[in-house]
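S1.2 Input.
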Amino acid sequence: MDFSPANEALADRFSLRPLSEIVPGLWQGMRPKSYIGYDLVISCEQFLAKKPMENFMGVTIHCPLRDEDDFEIPAYGIWAAAVAAHHVLDQQRGEKVLIHCSGGLNRSSLVTVRILELLGYEAHEAVAIIRRQHDDFALCNRAFERWALREQLPTAETTTLR
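S1.3 Output.
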């Protein structure tokens, strides 16, 4: 997989795996240069790329999140993205789903936790699987980790966590 120089430098500096298969068909990580090979891509980057991925024939969902300690969570957007990914994976047709953000650690992990919950895992199991399969630093932003583990829940469609 080919990554931007900034993402390659980040992966090298922190020994990150750029992309990892979390469970069969569900991939998580940094934004690759191409989406080819995936049937559904969920981008959790705050801003859309300036140009769309060339030659990609699958579906892309933009679920923008900021990776900060004080942030707004679009809760319904995260669940909608998770339901779409669950639907694709549940069809058991060998399709591939990619959840990505810039670094592949916090924003993508949050959405991946919700997908794994829809697949029958408990939140704490989902976090452990992501850390084992992808990276120990997944959900290193404690605010994201608290929300993923439901220690702090949003109360409306968009909620500010502090």
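S1.4 Remarks. The CA atoms of residues 27 and 98 lie 5 Å apart.
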